[in-house]
Amino acid sequence: MGGLMMLSGILGSCALWANLSSVYVWVVLMVTVGFGAIGFYDDYLKVTKQSHLGFSGKARLSAEFLIAGIAAWTIMQAGQAPFSSSLTFPFFKDFLLNLGIFFIPFAAFVIVGAGNAVNLTDGLDGLATVPVMVAAASFGVIAYLSGNAIFANYLQIHFVPGTGELAVILGAVIGAGLGFLWFNAPPAAIFMGDTGSLALGGLIGSVAVATKHEIVLAIIGGLFVVEILSVIIQVAVFKMTGKRVFLMAPIHHHFEKLGWTESQVVIRFWIIAVLLALIGLSTLKLR
Predict the structure, then answer these.
(1) In this structure, what DSSP letter does residue 97 have?
(2) In degrees rounded to 5, what are phi and psi of residue 86?
(3) Distance CA 172, CA 191 (A)
(4) How far is the first Cα of the chain from the last one, in angstroms, to the nearest whole number?
(5) Prior bond to 82 cis, omega within 30?
(6) CA separation for the pair 214, 236 (Å, rounded)
(7) Is 196 helix (H, G, I), strand (E, B) or coil?
(8) How far apart are CA 82 and CA 86, in angstroms?
(9) Phi-psi category of 50—alpha, beta or left, where left has phi over 0 and alpha has psi -120 to 50?
(10) Rounded to an integer, what distance in angstroms lies between the CA atom of residue 276 and that of residue 118?
(11) Do the beta carbons of residue 279 and residue 141 sit within 8 Å?
């Protein structure tokens, strides 16, 4: 439950420096706290029952989708139709796909997917922490630029009024991540747990939805995408054929089985996260 340390730092910083009149700030914090509470309950059950089995999978996903659905609806209502319910595409300024009411389940899927992808990545000391900080820094830039009419017009990205305030939350994530990493560096003295990983993933996902950069999230958070896809592929193929694609899933364990040391896996995955973030940020200019 070391994630509580990160969440307390983030919430404390937001109480001091974020503009609490912004609906986007409240939505992102709601997702963060909600997902954190689900993760905390899961961690609590695992600790008290001395078992890896925690919260029921179906109940946990249902709670996550409920929170994410409320967040998606609020974000859609906060913007101007039809842009607020549209999907934007990197590299294209004027190409929008209006999803209408289907924006809500799509956005909820993005938020829940981000939360669980980070959760699955958090399997080695420091593995999830730095990529989350990298993603937070990237979306801090995106949120600030998207929320500033002058910069948005110059870069030809979509202007989303009010999202600039999310840069404060994302800055707090970086600060909390640095503090956590000090104690999480191998050998770890404290662990993020589902409390932190679910909350941070949900936070990043909700920011991506608010800033209309859902597809860019798949690029910047590509490491998390690969991690969750490795689990889906492993389970699906095993159920159909009885064979395994990877030596072990999630994929960071596959590389451990290949002989990589834990530190090699972690640092190389950090490098990949940085490279993907740079590619994702390049979409701001290449239009």
Answers:
(1) E
(2) -105, 155
(3) 19
(4) 43
(5) yes
(6) 25
(7) helix
(8) 6
(9) left
(10) 15
(11) no
- Contact of 121 with 260, CB cutoff 8 Å: no
Q: Which amino acid is at 44?
A: Y
- Count other Cβ atoms within 10 Å, centred on residue 41: 17
Query: What pLDDT was estimated at residue 54?
Result: 62
Q: In the chain, what are the helix, strand and coil shares in percent, each to the nearest 5?
A: 75, 0, 25
Distances, alpha carbon 169 to alpha carbons 26, 97, 120, 173, 185, in Å = 10, 28, 23, 6, 23
CA distance 10 to 180: 12
On whether the CB atoms of residues 173 and 203 are closer than 8 A, the answer is yes
Q: Give me the residues paired with residue 87 across strands.
A: 97
Nearest of 134, 23, 38, 133 to residue 72 by alpha carbon:
23
Spatial contact of 9 and 176, defined as CB atoms under 8 Å apart:
yes
Structure tokens given for 157: 């990205």
**pLDDT 10s digits, 193-252:** 999 999 999 999 999 999 999 999 999 999 999 999 999 999 999 999 999 999 999 999
DSSP H or E run through 220 = helix 214-220
Q: How far apart are CA 200 and CA 250, in angstroms?
A: 19
Closest CA to 139 of 51, 199, 203, 67: 203
CA distances from 145 to 19, 65, 129, 216 (A): 17, 29, 24, 14
pTM across the whole model:
0.94
**At which residue do the structure tokens 């990205």 appear?**
157
For residue 250, cis peptide bond before it (omega within 30 degrees of 0)? yes
> To which residue do tokens 């592929």 refer?
233
Of residues 95, 66, 110, the one with CA closest to residue 209: 110
The CA distance from 126 to 56, in Å, is: 27
Which residue, among 155, 271, 160, has the nearest Cα to 222 in the 3D structure?
271
